[in-house]
Amino acid sequence: MGLLRALAAAAALALPLAPVAWAGSPVLVELFTSQGCSACPPADEMLTELAKRDDVVALALHVDYWDYIGWKDGFAIPGHTARQKGYAKAAGTRMIYTPHMVVDGKDHVTGTKPAPVNALIEAHKAEAEAVDLSVEKTANGLRIRASAGAPLGREAVVQVLRYIPSRKVEIQRGENAGKTITYANIVSGWDYRENWDGAAPLDVNVPLAGKGPAVVIIQEAGYGPVLAVSRIH
C-alpha cells in the first residue's frame, strides 16, 4: 500500500491508538514536546497511548526553547533541540516546532493528528527491514548484535538511550499553568553512540548504569531513516 493510500485509509477508518500485538521490528516515533507549549498536551496524551503498543517505540524528547515563556521544562535537554534541528536540516527546512513527531527518522507530522500518525506507522511496518538487530541484557549492560542484509547506502549510527516510563507534572506557570500532565517514555539521556558501516556484522557490549529501560536505535547518519530499533525493559 502506497503512503497516500495508507493515509486515506487511516483517515477513513480512524485507526485506533490502542495496544497492538506485533512480532516484527517496531516503528520508532519521536515526539518533540515541551511542558511550556500550550498545543502539546494532546500530543503528549497520544504518545502515552502509543507507548502501550508492541509495534511502536514511542519516545518523548523534551526541548528547551519554550523555557523562556515562564516555565522551565525539567525534562528538557539541549541535545533534543539539536536533534530536532538535525532532522529539520535533513528535511530541507530551518523551521522547528512543537508538537512535532518524526516516524522512523523519515516522515514528519504534527503530533496532534492520530490518523496520519497511524497511517505512517502502518506504512513503515510494511517496509522490509534493512538491518537485523538483536539486543540482550548482560551483567553490566547490553550486548548489541546487528547485520545488514545488503550494503548500507550511508554509514549508520548505533545509539543507546535511556527513558523514564512515566512521570506526572503539576505545571504552575507558563501557557499550561494549572494543568497536571502525565508524560510517558521521557528520554533522559543518550548513553552511547558508535558509527557502523554495515560491511561486517556488529557485536558490541555497552555498559549501562541503573535499572531503567533502554532503547537501541540504528539510524542512517545525518539524521536519516531509522534502520532498526529495539527496546529493553
Highlighted features:
233 residues, alpha+beta, four-stranded mixed sheet, four-stranded antiparallel sheet, disordered N terminus, signal, DUF1223
User: What is the helix/strand order?
Assistant: HEHEHEEHEEEEEEE
- Structural class, by secondary structure, is alpha+beta
Low-confidence stretches: 1-16
Beta-strand proportion: 35-45%
Helix run count:
4
Q: Radius of gyration in whole Å, from Cα?
A: 17 Å
Largest sheet, order of strands side by side? Answer: 2-1-3-4
Number of domains: 1
What is the molecular shape? globular
Helix content: 10-25%
Total number of beta strands:
11
Average pLDDT score: 91
Query: How many strands, which pairing sense, and closed or not: the largest β-sheet?
Result: 4 strands, mixed
End-to-end separation: 33 Å
InterPro entries: DUF1223, Thioredoxin-like_sf
Protein name: DUF1223 domain-containing protein
Signal peptide: 1-23
Keywords: Signal
Protein architecture, described:
This protein is α+β, with helices and mostly antiparallel strands and 233 residues long. The protein has one domain (3-232). Helices cover 20% and strands 38% of the residues. The chain contains 4 helices and 11 strands, in the order αβαβαββαβββββββ. It has helices at 3-13, 41-50, 78-90, 114-125; strands spanning 27-33, 56-62, 100-103, 107-110, 131-137, 141-148, 156-170, 180-196, 202-207, 214-220, 226-232. The longest helix has 13 residues, at 78-90. The radius of gyration is 17 Å and the shape is globular. It starts with a helix and ends with a strand.
